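A protein record pairs a chain with a discrete description of its three-dimensional fold. The following entry can be read in just this way.
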Amino acid sequence: MKKFGILIGIVLVCLCFSSFLVNADIETKKISLNGSTSMEKMINALKEGMDDQYPELLIEPQFTGSSAGIEAVFSGTAQIGNSSRYLKDTEKEKGLIENIVAIDAIVIVTDKHNQVNNLTTQQLIDIYKGKIRNWKEVGGQDLPIVVIGRESGSGTRSAFEEILELEEQCQYANEVNESGPIIAKAQSIPGAIGYVSLDVVDESVKTLAINGVKANETTIQNGQYSLQRPFVMATQGEISKQNEEVQKLFQFIASEDGQKIIRAVGLVPTTNEMSY
């Protein structure tokens, strides 16, 4: 009986060791991504969704900002650079390929007690330029406007300012490094206004319509909602020239399961823009 117990113990040890070797082999197949903090929710959801279909892949994302992600691809420290803005011509000239995997809306948020429900594009521009400084000027209560934005180098900030042609003109009271603090400040500071990705919006803040249009999948797809930008997964060279692991990631994104995940996090998928 004792010998039988010892035998069972040896078998279990062998199984555990075999499992360890299999897992070690799986972990060698890594995909490194770096970039936009706005894309964190989507990337983590895709990572989780791929676990069953591609257990041999280990996705290693970092979220340090769009420009940092692009530089990481150039330097070879990341295989994919996540950017929440279109690539610049200078970046494309260096061989970077703009693989657009989703379209995101930039949503304007305020505190829930704000009486304003809608802004025109020009009113929004004037608020961020500092020309409109009180909510009563746009039909709200007599309350100073506290303008919040992202830090320099943020893809969200670049896209917001480019869409509204506001580069180097915004009068920010606060600049923050992530979307979360913008939500927190919009929630807690009376009169605050900020911009964030649609997929990070929660019930703690109020979202404003732009020109009478609210952001949703339909208004983003048909172009009615004007504040929208791409989610780019940039590669050095076309997808077809990447290694097998990176190609599998993009194949999953283009699959039915991948499209469902992108929709589930509040984005609009666009696989037609990927360079297979």
Observations:
- Confidence is low (pLDDT under 50) at residues 1-27.
- The longest helix spans residues 2-27.
- The chain has ten helices and twelve strands.
